[in-house]
Amino acid sequence: MDRMPRWADVLLVPLISLLLAAVISALVILAIGQNPWEALKIMVSGSVGSTYGWGYTLYYATNFMFTGLAVAVANHARLFNIGGEGQAVIGGLGVALIALYIPWPHWSLALLAAMVASAAFGAAWAAIPAVLQARRGSHIVITTIMFNFIAAALLNYLLVGPLKPAGTMETATASFPEATHIPSFRDMFSFGETILFRGTPANITFFIAILACLAVWLLIWKTRLGYEIRAFGFSEGAARYAGIGSTKIIMVTMLISGALAGMMAINNTLGEAERLILNAVEGAGFIGIAVALMGRSHPLGVFLAAILFGILYQGGSELGLTLAIPREMIVVIQALVIMFTGALDNMVRMPIERIFARRRARTPLSPPGPTLHPPGRVAPSSTPGTAATE
Amino acid sequence: MTKLSTFLGAAAALAISAGAALADPAVIFDLGGKFDKSFNESAFQGAERWKEETGGSYAEFELTAEPQREQAIRRFAEQGYSPIIMVGFMSATPLNEIAPDYPDTKFVIVDAVVEQPNVRSVVFNEHEGSYLVGMLAGLASKSDTVGFVGGMDIPLIRKFGCGYAQGVKAVKPDATILANFTGTTPAAWNDPAKGSELTLAQISQGADVVFAAAGATGVGVLQTAADENILSIGVDSNQNYLHPGQVLTSMVKRVDNAVFEAMSAGEAVETGVQVMGIANEGVGYAVDENNQSLITPEMKAAVDEAAAKIGSGELEVHDYMSDETCPAVNF
User: Fold this and answer.
1) Distance of CA A247 to the CA centre of its chain
2) B320 touches chain A (CB under 8 A)
3) Mean per-residue pLDDT for B136-165?
4) Domains of chain B
5) What is the ipTM of this complex?
6) Whole-model pTM?
């Protein structure tokens, strides 16, 4: 891992992965008889070329930030939380309950309550798999993914029965009252005659997501609990030897992870739909896994990866709206990016590591070498001292 | 910002030029996609038929995410398309909010009612069509036990099942009706294997006619019924051809007619609620060369008589969605 400078690890590898995905996507678009250059232009200008595009890109990105952070936090304790989907669904239930049944005088109070409710519901949904893992050793991957189905079934029951207004067809709750409508980007950034972010769903939750990124960074790297989580992740046995209780760490980590996933509901339920819809989450929980992988479980990486996936989603919509590219093809393009940046990460990383290693071997005493690495770690063959000891 | 204003300007210019000539219609397909072998596909066929007959062109979009509903409606409206047709009841709430922003654009929504001056709402009396095929099932059954396999457990599908059960009871008051749903998530629309299992379970309980109202899941129901030598009933489009001689009939819901009609009317499309029932051939049962031998003249006479009575209002079929209860079957 020390063979590569940090900038290559953080920037070069994802960029090359993206480039590979773009090349293969271009071939796919060529194969269905469209112009890849045209498609790329539409994707980029449609997602970041106007406030309209940004309004959608940042809306999707906000969803992915929450679910990405949820996966990232759990990753630090080597817990693989695949249940972001279900936790976000139940978080939405919390938001819907407080928005529908409590008369809020002002949106700011409703927003605060929604943050608490979504986090609490999401955490509660993650708590059961966490207990099963901590006490009974039931594998968290299996239990969290099962809980996604239970969450979907529970919400379905509620939206077909108790929570559905009588006489409507839609599997959704009634619309939330006016007082709970939180400001959208359009309300926040339009002044006078110029209307920005027109008709787009991005809202104030984006800033809550940024705060969440910051909070996760502080938690993981600046607090004792974060240290314990990371220690537990590196070696469970060593952590236990050092007096870190595994039950506590599994529970706390999963509760935080579930709360973050649940908070996604502020964006899609309170912010966008202003009612609870059956398939409100639509895969964001799973995209969160790719976002956390690509962001290497670091909040800044998650932030950037979430924006990239927001661009992919909104750019994909624009492709469908402008060119006659079938939606299955758009999914193929999105999947290629996920595959190259997430799953096939090592395919790009290892050759690049080798290149850097070879360059370093050739120029052992180049200026950045010694400053970047402590002397003991310089490649042995090039140091006369080590040769003599042999 | 300049980009936005040029974009809006371009959209406005396009809207004006399109309005001056003749606006093209646009279709927004729901999350199921236009090849769902169910109502989205039916809408697609209606649109294609219009394209073929008139030589016109239309814009289309297949939704993949919830926020895209609003996005697609607004984009098409700003680009000057009219009427903008969307299939699926989930678009009702967004459309209700957006329609007033574009008073000069006409909208058509299938399967839901949106009360706005520039919206046509097309709804189908599925319970009436289901009643007719229920009568056929009751008359064709020898074991006096019939089955119903629904897709996702939502009120709309219960409406199918309830009409069907009433039809069965109308001809055989003592008949047993077995009702099952494939699931509670949208995946239930596309699970032929589960549909097949449910059919086998119903056969083991004595069912000899099975009605599938389950989207692509129904393919598995019809296949199993054919393999086990019992009768089945298709849904939405005419599925009699899938297993000639083994599909009793199909409950057809003419979404294609609704879309075709709206496109033909163009910008002059009449707004308000349009109910597609037995009276205006919006729903019905299908007879063709594949199932002629299965439907005796007596059966046909009985069903046609009921259809006439429903059409004239003399016979009323209970609509599950009016009060979410069903007199004929417990779900």
Assistant:
1) 26
2) no
3) 93
4) 2-124 (3.40.50.2300), 126-252+283-323 (3.40.50.2300)
5) 0.75
6) 0.79
